[in-house]
Amino acid sequence: MSSNIKLSSPATAEQARGFWEIPVLFEDDHILALDKPSGLLVSPDRQDATRPNLATLISHAIKEQKPWARERNLNYLAHAHRLDFETSGVLLFAKNKPALVALANLFGAETPVRHFIAMSWGHPLETDFEIDARLALHPLKIGQMCVNHNDGKHARTAFTVVEQFSDWCLLRCAPFTERIHQIRAHLKHAGFPMVGDQIYGGKELWLSRLKKDFYLKPGREERPLMGRTALHAVELSLPHPVTHENVTIKSELPKDFKVALKYLRQYAQA
């Protein structure tokens, strides 16, 4: 059975044909976990139906019985949770509706089954801390969440400082609840916005800021070390929805994360 899933979107007048080869991290008769790349939606965009998304691409591939779907005898595959457009890492799918229902109950049980790695600005005062702050849609900024103690939905996240740098930190994040932009909004509220998170005020990370003798060749334009929100779903650990055995699925940090960490460790030691 293939270890990657190949997906493609048809070319449109506005967009070129898209192609993704996504690694399979775990699979059995009931569930399948993919290593989602940054820059791919999980579900359709309500404002722009032409944007490629995993749910639609997978649905079309199953309907057309692409090789990876045919060899698995798949007629159903639904995501059990979401990841933001720029977030990479472990994304879990159910191969049948009973498994999907069981997973929905697990994700709604306020147990931290998902773990993320984030790169943020600032210096938390404690190595381990929690943010328990209700979240709601921002009243003025479309697509943004904010802390709203009166009308927001319950949201709780645990954080651990993994590594501290001069002006940045590497955090392990464990959300107890499943709210839109939860980790990003909580870190913004705490004063530690993520690197590259333009929606929540996280500035980009530039090598020229880290390296004193930085030199850019004439005609070249510097690019940020992290060209997107620095958030990666590194681990999923939960009871299997059918067998009830503990399952742990991990995803390595992607290349852009590793490159940014390399330069932080080299030039920005605390």
Stated plainly, the CATH topology of the largest domain is called: Pseudouridine synthase
Mean pLDDT: 92
Question: What is the CATH architecture term of the largest domain?
Answer: 2-Layer Sandwich
Largest sheet: 11 strands, mixed
Tell me the distance between the termini: 46 Å
Q: Strand-and-helix sequence, N→C? A: EEEHHEEHEEEEEEHHEEH
In words, what does this structure look like?
This protein folds into two domains: 1-107, Alpha-Beta Plaits (2-Layer Sandwich), CATH 3.30.70; 110-270, Pseudouridine synthase, CATH 3.30.2350.10. It contains six helices and 13 strands. It has helices at residues 54-63, 67-70, 97-107, 182-190, 207-210, 255-267; strands at residues 4-9, 18-27, 31-36, 78-79, 88-94, 114-121, 128-132, 135-137, 145-147, 156-164, 168-175, 231-239, 246-250. The strands form two sheets. Strands 1, 2, 3, 4, 5, 6, 7, 10, 11, 12 and 13 form an eleven-stranded mixed β-sheet that branches. Strands 8-9 form a two-stranded antiparallel sheet. The longest helix is centred in the C-terminal third of the chain and has 13 residues, at 255-267.
Name the features.
single chain, alpha+beta, Pseudouridine synthase, eleven-stranded mixed beta sheet, 19% helix
In short:
It contains six helices and 13 strands. It has 270 residues and is an alpha+beta fold.
Give a topology summary:
Blueprint: E1 4-9, E2 18-27, E3 31-36, H1 54-63, H2 67-70, E4 78-79, E5 88-94, H3 97-107, E6 114-121, E7 128-132, E8 135-137, E9 145-147, E10 156-164, E11 168-175, H4 182-190, H5 207-210, E12 231-239, E13 246-250, H6 255-267
